[in-house]
Amino acid sequence: MGYGIRVVLVMNRKGGSGKSTLCRALASAAAARGETVTIFDTDSSRSCLTWMQAGQEAGNWSPLVEVIHTLDAHRVVEAIDQIYEQHDQEHLIVIDTFGGGSEAQDVLAVAAHRIICPMMLSRGDLSETRETASWYLKLRGRVEKPDALAGFSVTLSRVPVRVSETERAVAEELFQSLPALESYLANRSAYVRMDKEGLLGVIADKTPNRALAVHVQNAVKEAGELLDEIDQLILAPAEVA
Fold it and tell me: Which residue has the higher pLDDT, 122 or 14?
C-alpha cells in the first residue's frame, strides 16, 4: 500500500530519550521497502548528519536517504514545500529535534502529519514525556486551527527483554494517561550498530554471518511495524490524540 509523502516530527523535551535512534530506525525501515527518505537534523550536535557520513564511508548507505542539517525551522518548512511540488512519490520525511521546547518546534509541529514522542521506561522519562504532551496541548490552544494540527503519540524506546516491576508500572501508567503506540523499539544491539555504521537494511545485506544478519533483519522488521502503525494514524485524519 502506498502512503505518499508523510512528515513525522520526533519530539521529546528530554535529551537522550532515543529521538535520533528512532529517526534512524524509521529511515532504515522506509529505505528497506524502497521509499525515498529525508531526515531533517535540527539538533546542533549534528548526530544524524554525522550518522549519514559514517554510513557513507562504511558503504552502508543508500541513495534513497538524505540527511539535511539546519537549525532554521522555516528552512525545513520551505524544503518540505519543495518536496510536495515534486511528482507523486513514496517519501518519508522525519524531523529530528533537540531537547527542550522552543518556538522553532512549534513551527515544525504545524508542518507535521504526526508527532511521535519516544520514551524510555523510567519514572523520569515519563515525567518529561508528560511535559512534552503538555507542550502539545498548549500548542493546540495557540494555533488557529487546532483540529488541523498533527496528532501526538508516544512510543516506547529501548525496551529491555526482561521488564522489571518498576518498568512495568511505568508502562501501565503511560498507557493509562497518554496516547501510546503498541509498536516500540526494543533494546537491540542492532540499533547500537545502526547508530554507528549506517542503514539497518544495508548492514543486514552486507553481514556475512547469517545469525548476525537475522538479528539486524529483525530490527528492520520491528522498525517497519512501528512505521506501519504511524502511517495508519496519519491516514486517519479524524483521529485526535
Answer: 122
Q: How wide is the angle at C-alpha 218 spanned by C-alphas 184 and 8, nearest 5°?
A: 40
CATH fold of 5-234: Rossmann fold (3.40.50)
DSSP result, 62-90: -TTEEEEE-S-HHHHHHHHHHHHTSPS--
Stated pTM of the model: 0.94
| Of the candidates 103, 1, 239, 28, the residue with the CA atom closest to the CA atom of residue 39 | 28
Dist. CA 149–CA 202, nearest whole Å: 35
Residue type, 237: P
Residue 48: the pLDDT is 96
Domain layout of the chain by residue ranges: 5-234
pLDDT digits (tens, 9 = 90+) for 141-200: 998 889 999 999 999 999 999 999 999 999 999 999 999 999 999 999 999 999 999 999
Q: How far is CA 210 from the centre of its chain?
A: 28
DSSP state of 135: H
Its sign, for the CA torsion 43, 80, 49, 219, is positive
DSSP state of 238: T
Give the Cα separation of 187 and 160 in Å (integer): 5
Residue 26, all three cell numbers? 524509521
